Every structure is written in structure tokens, then in C-alpha cells.
Amino acid sequence: MNKNSILHVLTVLLIAVFVLTACAPAATTTAVTTEAPVEPTPVPPTDTPEPPTATPEPAIGSAEHPIKVLFVPSVEAATIVAGGEKMAAALKEATGLEFVVSVPSSYPATIEEMCASPTDTMGFIPALGYVFANQLCGVDVAFKAIRYGSAVYWAQFLVARDSDIKTIQDLEGKKWGYTEPASTSGYMVPLVMMNEAGVKPGESVETGGHPQSVKAVYNGEVDFSTSFYTPPLKPEGEPAWKEGDPPDVPDEVVPSCAPTADEKKLMCGDWRILDARANIRTEAPDVIQKVRIAFVSQGIPNDTLSFGPEFPEELRAQISEALLAYAETDGWAETIGSQDFYNWTGITEASDSEYDFTRKMVEAAGVTLESLGK
To answer: What pLDDT does residue 39 have?
Structure first.
């Protein structure tokens, strides 16, 4: 083969190699990196909307939530409201707390109100009312009344001055005027006394209150009536009245009995009348000449100042301190200490156990919460 032929063959081979190389697929190169992977940006959680903020209850004793001061209607409601509001004003000045005075329509209604408002009520309620309120919902006694040095009072049986009734046996078949079924001295104690004596009165009439019971005898509407008794204040120098003494003033001073010029007292000579008869002295100035006391019961624990079962302890202590201070002022004598109001001449601390006698009385009479006031 000549030189030209050899060159021709080499040329053809080079062209073939070039063509094959151009047609081969390109090699795939994988890049390797040493950098850490990028973390995704976290999405903050959506906040759960908070419930609307509840409006706080007004503080007990504030203008928006005053403390309820309840008085049983044992005397004229207008007298209680007027005196009670003066007392409330004095307590507000001493404590900074707000009070509202009310006189429910009856003893049971007062108890119901205290149990319905356990956190903000204070009630001036008698022994029987307290026992039921304590049993019903846990109303708690704080103070008991003092009347002229005594922590007890009595039930009295009133008759016409010329009546022949002298003993409990003489009440058999006679027409009875009582205050209301929830009244301790006006109904409960007399009922127990008559039951124990085996005496059954004739017709019984609910008069509606202590003054009304006195008036029922004064007007000749009943043969006898029952109401609260506080012993008369004897003339200066005389020994104080004690159980077993005659309950009424001596016969020789009866003609002189009359209200004082300012009508604030009912006097028989130097004897001062303090029982329920004194409450009608202005409309019936001759009440002592017309109505006498036949006899009285054994001592009954005095009325109470009690608090609702959930009354705040701090406020209770504040009010108690203010009441004790107020009882030493002239304002006390013009309000709850007035003879026309409740005639509390003072107060002293009381305990629940002191009212066990009243509980026994309720049990003996068969009175229940359901029958109270019916």
C-alpha cells in the first residue's frame, strides 16, 4: 500500500471516532455538598381567643350591693323603718358600709329572706324565728337583747280589768286573741302553757301584732290576749322586779296611770309600764285602767341579732363592733332602744345553745317549718 492510501485510511478512522464520540450521551455528575439542610420557618400557632371577662359582682356593703337589715313586724312598721334607717346611718358612718332597711310582712317572710340571701342579710329576729332560721339554713346568732338589765322576757295573758279570769284554767273555752303563729310570746309560749295545763280556749283570733292584741282586749273583741311582757320599772329605791312578783302595778296606783306630757312614757305614779300595753298609750291613754295582766310565763330568751349563714366574717366583725359602740350612745335609745321600737336597752353576745329551750318548746308544740305562719 502506498503512502497516499495509508493517509486516506487514517483520515476515515479519525472521522468515525469523532462521530461516535459526538453521539455518546453526556455523563451525569452528582454534586455533593457538606452544608446542613435549611430548617423550615415554624408557623406560630393561632391563639385561642379567651372568653369574655365576667363582670365582677359588686362588693357586699357597697352602694351597688348594700347589706339588708331586716326587722320583724312586732311593732308599727313605720316606727321600725324610721328608727332602723337612723341606725343604718350610724352604722354606715362607723363602718363605711351601705345598708338598706326593710320590714317583711311577717316573721316567716323575714326568715325566708335571710335564707334566700345568705351572704348579705342581718336580722333582728325573736327566739322562735332564730330557731327556725337556724334549722332551715344555718342563720347564726351574734347578739341577744338586754331589756332593763334582763336577757329574758315573758309572755303575758291580758284580760279586761273587771274580768274574773285569774288562772290559766279560767281560759277554758274563752276567746283568745294572739299576735301571729310565729310569735314566741304572742302565740307559741302561751300555746304550750295551755296544752300542758290541758286547757282548750274557744275561738282563736289572729290580731296581727302585739299592740293589736292589747287593743283586742281593750275593745272587748276577745276574752284574753297574749303579748310580750317586760316588768314595770319600780320607783327609785324599790327592789327590782323578779320572777314570782306580781306582774302588774299595785291596784292603788292604777287610777293615776297615764302617758307623760311628751307621750314618751306610760307612768302609774312612779311606776313605769314597759309591757305591750305601753305601745298603745297615745291612742288609749286609759289602757291600764281597762286592761290588766292575769299572769305571765316563765322567762324566754330575748330577741336576737343574727346573720345570714354565709355572711362574710370580716364584715360581721366590723358591724358587731360598731353595734356595741352604738348601743352606748343616745342614738340607740332613740332607735331600737325606744319603747316604741323594740325597747332593747342594750345587747350582749349570745350563743346558739341558749336557744335550746325554744327548740324544746317548738318540739312540744308540734310546730314545723311547713306550718310556720299558717
So the answer is: 55
At CB < 8 A and 24+ separation, what contacts does 110-113 make? Answer: 110/70, 110/71, 110/72, 111/136, 111/139, 111/372, 113/68, 113/70
Domains 67-149+302-365 and 152-300 agree in fold: yes
- CATH number of the 67-149+302-365 domain: 3.40.190.10
Q: Look up residue 79 and give its three cell numbers.
A: 316606727
* Dihedral sign from CA coordinates of 280, 285, 287, 288: positive
Q: Cell for 13?
A: 478512522
Q: Does residue 8 have a pLDDT over 60?
A: no
Distance of alpha carbon 343 from alpha carbon 334, whole angstroms: 10
Given a contact cutoff of 8 angstroms between Cβ atoms, the answer to whether 67 and 60 are in contact is yes
Angle between helix 77-95 and 313-326 (nearest 10):
110
Domain at 152-300: CATH architecture: 3-Layer(aba) Sandwich (3.40)
Task: Write down the domain spans for the chain.
Answer: 67-149+302-365, 152-300
| pLDDT tens digits, one per residue of 179-226 | 988 788 899 889 989 988 999 999 999 999 999 999 999 999 999 999
What is the strand order of the sheet 258-259 is part of?
A: 258-259, 266-268, 271-272
Which residues, 6 or more positions from 114, have their beta carbon under 8 angstroms from its beta carbon?
A: 70, 121, 123, 125, 133, 137, 139, 306, 308
Q: What are phi and psi of 153, to 5 degrees?
A: -140, -175
